[in-house]
Amino acid sequence: MANFDWHAERSDLAGIALLDRAPESEGIDLRAVRLYRLGRVRREMLRYGVDAVILSDPINIRYATGARNMQVFCQRNAPSRYLLLTAGKSILFEFTGCLHLGEGYETIDEVRPSKTASFVAAGPDIAAREKAWATEMADLIGELVGAGATVGLERLNAGTAIALKECGLTIVDAQQPVEMARAIKSDEEMKCINASLRATENGVEKLRAAIRPGMTENELWSVLHQSVIAQNADYCETRLLNAGGRSNPWFQETSSNVIGENELIALDTDVVGCHGYYSDFSRTFHSGPGKPTSAQRELYKVAHEQVVHNMGILKAGMSFRDYADRAWDIPEKYYQNRYYLSAHGCGMTGEYPYLYHRGDFPDAGYDGEILAGMTLCVESYTGEAGGREGVKLEQQVLVTETGIELLSRFPFEEDLLG
Q1: How many whole angstroms separate alpha carbon 314 and alpha carbon 318?
Q2: Global pTM?
Q3: How would residue 8 be classed by pLDDT, with cut points 50, 70 and 90?
């Protein structure tokens, strides 16, 4: 595959890599953020006995280095760019023509052109491409950490992983060390998370003000999307805004459905915002022009009670099992349509840990410890099986040594709380 560096002769690229130089970066030491995150990954690699990782998930690359490039494209076209990370070296293999985007980061020692080992790039020569790619990578890893290294992989196609193993490497999954690294946030990192939340809240306020019966779900949802993108967000990860009968059950994607009068409108933001951080809170609105019905207020109050109760029991040192046992009891008539999680980790996306409901714990749950520095999203979806409407509420919090700090500040609806 040909490799191009269209910017090789330019001399005016100073600072081009620092894409987060913008108003939302005021007061944030982004260099400290990047170095903290890189250090976290390296500490977890050491903890789990991993000599090197090859990261191709663009979110993990951004976490470890700060470098971003075509985030959505790279999620679909992996591994079009990838990062080789050892205890002493960080080499970013950047997409064709994009090497300049990796320059200027204290977290990246070297930028090289990527050699995409995928069927799309190689066609029927894919097996040969995978073997050549693996041989070259194995030789490089051998130079950096020695023969027979333990290498963590994620998001590489199976043929590439098999070829690396055939080169004498011990292959393990990179997910555990990377997820454990991402789980604990620094004080400076929290400034990025709060900047993303404030920008998303601005967008949700515009969305709320734009609500009119007669507009479609898509039209309303686009108000949020336009606002957050204008504030340097990356993308909205899901399409979760539903009105009226499409608000129950949950997880019906935003559509051309026309919003009617006096309907509930449920929203989950799921915004990958400025600095690449996930702004994840949920709110439910009323379309007017009349007042909410008693049934709508009841749904809202039940969802609100669940979120408030579960926020109130969170504390550092609590086990996941203990949290599940102490979490709010979902009334039987809402249990079938419950949200699949009680709470989940949140950083650059939804992440470790997943905290399950008591009834789901035997089949899906796993134990662990809630730690200070984790950011969690506390969830509720309330809607009866066969009912017409439902309510989605969610709050984002930081676990501290003494309790929790509320991060999402967008108000609840007073007319629905009653």
Answers
A1: 7
A2: 0.93
A3: low
CB 114 within 8 A of CB 96: yes
- Tens digits of per-residue pLDDT, 152-164? 999 888 999 999 9
What's the confidence (pLDDT) of residue 1?
A: 43
Q: Which helix (H) or strand (E) holds 320?
A: helix 320-326
Residue 120 scores a pLDDT above 90: no
Backbone angles phi, psi at 120, to 5 degrees: -60, -40
Across 24-48, average pLDDT:
96
Burial class (CB in 10 A: 0-12, 13-18, 19+), 219: middle
Strands 235-236 and 170-173 turn out to be: unpaired
AA letter at 274? C
Q: Provide the 10 A C-beta neighbour count for residue 333.
A: 14
- The torsion of the CA quartet 397, 62, 54, 36, rounded to 10 degrees, works out to -60
Could you tell me if 189 and 66 are in contact, meaning their C-beta atoms sit under 8 angstroms apart? no
Question: Tokens 């050892």 belong to which residue?
Answer: 86
What pLDDT does 13 receive?
47
Instruction: Find where tokens 């604990």 sit.
Output: 184
Q: What is the DSSP letter of 5?
A: -
Whether 247 shows a pLDDT value over 70: the answer reads: yes
Please report, for residues 134, 138, 140, 248, 301, the alpha-carbon distance to residue 64 in angstroms, rounded to integers and kept in the order given: 22, 21, 20, 39, 41
Angle between helices 187-210 and 30-47 (to 10 degrees): 110
Rounded Cα distance between 370 and 326, Å, is: 14
Q: How many other β-carbons are positioned within 10 Å of the β-carbon of residue 136?
A: 12
Three state DSSP letters for 30-62:
HHHHHHHHHHHHHHHHHHCCCCEEEECCHHHHH
- Residue 285's nearest CA partner among 392, 378, 381 is 392
Q: What is the DSSP-derived secondary structure letter of residue 369?
A: B
Q: Are 88 and 180 in contact (CB under 8 A)?
A: no
Classify strands 278-279 and 241-243 as parallel, antiparallel or unpaired: unpaired
Give the separation between CA 403 and CA 352, rounded to whole angstroms: 19
Pick from 1, 2, 16, 9: which is nearest to 100 by CA? 16
